[in-house]
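Note to self: keep these together.
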Amino acid sequence: DADKDDYDRAVFYFEMNRFKEAAYFAQLAYKSNPQRAEVLDLLGVLAMHADQLDVALDCVRGAISIASDEPMFHTHLGMVLQMMNDINGAVSAFNRARHLAPEDPVVLINYGASLRLQGDHRSALGVFESLIEQGVSGGAIGLNLGLIYESLGHKAKATQTFEEAIKEAPDAVHLRQSYADFLTRNEAEDAAEAQLKIIERLTRGHHSM
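Structure:
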């Protein structure tokens, strides 16, 4: 079936970060079957990567209208709304995803991060602590927890959390940048400068590959 083959090719290219080819095959799959929810969702994610947020919103909402019980569609809706600075809408979308997939780490990380952006730091802290209790770890959890602890006034705990997360994910540029910003806000200029030098080295290495 043609739309399945085209969709599989689109996913293959998407997973290789070859978004132009992915979009080409996703469009072919859509023309073959415009009512296929996962094709609409993929078109939405590709539009999000291209910063075409209105298109992304339409596509992901279209996917949800066909298959409203798919948690990842609601997660993608939350991501688009967050990029559009509709934080309350994002929290609602991630919350819906959480009800559909209450133990999915990707869903919970996004939900917790949106609560943090909304300013509900205590609820966000509960989400990330529950993930750690489940044995889930990684740079995204450390980054969010570090910022939550800072917002709650626990600066030493924030520093420790950032440093532990960086030990676990030393090449995560986004995590190091957040830590550098935290250090700058807290007048630790030398430590911030050291992080920025590492970031420069990491990004230079990445570009030369």
